[in-house]
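Run log // design_07
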């Protein structure tokens, strides 16, 4: 039996049979190996060590079967040189344990890069909860329990990971998390938090689009056509901002028929809404000036890239390239300018980052990321990355990644590499057997 081919629910059953409530897979720098907390989990440790695609010496992967709800919950910490691993908690359905872990690994690494490029003193981490394990979330009380248990789990990790909202999780859910841990952001404004980060995220993506157009000498957004996949928390305000900028036509797709309600909401904009099947990515092939993936990841691949007609791809979705090396090269070969997600979708996490320092109307800290004057704003950094890519012949994603890697190794000016110390302490104090 291969552990990673089990479904998340089967893994939960197996762990429960074996009396394992939680486990870790921790990178041991000295030994150059992944350490598993239990012999049963050793095969997963060996698999991570051999994986070249998504495992990148992540400092720690922590997993629990939540004590009452039975949901498989995890925190994946990639790198904490710049500070605590920070990133949202996703509540999503996965077919296999491998899919579940890969998503956490990939997303956590993406957060390391995003946080570093945004200039935040945070490392990278991500939470993942598997739908279809334990209690369902349709009943509000069950849902609250799931997130409270996640909060307690985060507390047990002593602050090496700070969580936030992500796909499948709402700001209200974050209030339940917050009732059990201080290591969360994105809590509702009624509790002193910054609330839903999606509107600033949409504004950041818009600035990335403007940088790409300026780089290609194609002027402003006025009069352009933009294809948007996913009209959710980010996609919807993005359409509004595009309308404000004078975009002529938007073709928006979503799998949710409820999104039809957006039709007619933006006077003056020619907005076509298409309700599609989950696997239908035909909106990416529209003859547009810009394609904006704002739904799920992995949608830029050998099936979709050959059909893209737009010269620019710039959207909010995390991990848009199915295979980063291969698909980045495919886009370059087709002369499509791809702005990587971690370069342009930073505003969600930026919006959360300074929550504990209080916040202001039109917060200048936030606005500086969205303006033209700061050399590390979304617009200016995107311009620099695109110019360097053109100069060096590398892709924008490669240039952004190299810069992000370099910055992610800078040590926090006050706390140094404290996250790694916390993880070592969790190992020493037998975190996995304490539950
Ligand atoms: P969301 O869940 O509110 O919206 C996603 C929308 O995409 C939903 O309306 C869904 O029905 C639709 N969708 C799913 N599969 C689709 C498909 N195959 N074709 C068309 N539509 C499809 O999520 P949200 O918050 O808008 O985030 C969108 C993306 O941006 C996600 O990948 C998220 O990780 C990323 N992101 C979001 C941030 C935020 O502040 N909300 C910050 C950074 C990244």
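design_07 sequence
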């Amino acid at each position: 039996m291969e552990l990673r081919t089990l479904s998340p629910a089967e893994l939960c059953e197996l762990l429960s049979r074996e009396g394992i409530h939680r486990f870790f897979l921790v990178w041991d720098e000295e030994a150059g190996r992944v350490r598993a907390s239990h012999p049963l989990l050793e095969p997963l440790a060996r698999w991570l060590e051999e994986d070249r695609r998504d495992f990148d010496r992540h400092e720690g992967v922590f997993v629990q079967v939540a004590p009452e709800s039975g949901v498989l919950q995890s925190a994946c910490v990639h790198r904490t040189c710049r500070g605590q691993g920070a990133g949202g908690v996703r509540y999503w359905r996965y077919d296999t344990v491998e899919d579940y872990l890969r998503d956490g690994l990939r997303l956590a690494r993406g957060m390391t890069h995003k946080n570093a490029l945004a200039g935040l003193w945070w490392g990278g981490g991500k939470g993942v909860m598997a739908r279809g394990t334990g209690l369902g979330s349709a009943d509000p009380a069950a849902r609250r329990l799931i997130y409270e248990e996640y909060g307690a789990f985060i507390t047990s990790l002593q602050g090496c990971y700070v969580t936030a909202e992500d796909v499948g999780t709402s700001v209200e859910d974050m209030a339940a998390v917050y009732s059990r841990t201080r290591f969360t952001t994105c809590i509702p404004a009624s509790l002193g938090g910054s609330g839903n980060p999606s509107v600033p995220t949409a504004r950041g993506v818009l600035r990335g689009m403007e940088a790409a157009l300026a780089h290609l000498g194609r002027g402003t957004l006025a009069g352009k056509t933009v294809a948007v996949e996913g009209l959710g928390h980010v996609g919807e305000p993005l359409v509004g901002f595009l309308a404000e900028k004078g975009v002529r036509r938007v073709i928006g797709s979503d799998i949710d028929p409820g999104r039809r309600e957006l039709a007619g909401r933006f006077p003056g904009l020619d907005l076509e809404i298409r309700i599609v099947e989950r696997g239908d990515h035909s909106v990416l092939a529209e003859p547009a000036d810009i394609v904006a993936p704002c739904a799920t990841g992995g949608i830029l691949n050998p099936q979709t890239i050959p059909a893209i007609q737009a010269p620019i791809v710039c959207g909010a979705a995390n991990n848009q390239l199915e295979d980063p090396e291969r698909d980045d090269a495919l886009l370059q070969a087709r002369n499509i300018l791809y702005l990587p997600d971690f370069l342009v979708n930073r505003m969600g996490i930026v919006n959360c980052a300074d929550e504990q320092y209080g916040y202001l109307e039109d917060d200048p800290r936030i606005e500086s990321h969205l303006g033209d004057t700061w050399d590390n704003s979304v617009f200016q950094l995107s311009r620099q990355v695109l110019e360097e890519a053109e100069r060096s012949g590398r892709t924008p994603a490669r240039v952004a990644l190299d810069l992000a890697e370099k910055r992610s190794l800078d040590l926090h000016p006050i706390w140094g590499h404290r996250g790694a110390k916390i993880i070592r302490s969790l190992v020493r104090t037998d975190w996995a057997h304490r539950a």
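The chain has a mean pLDDT of 96.
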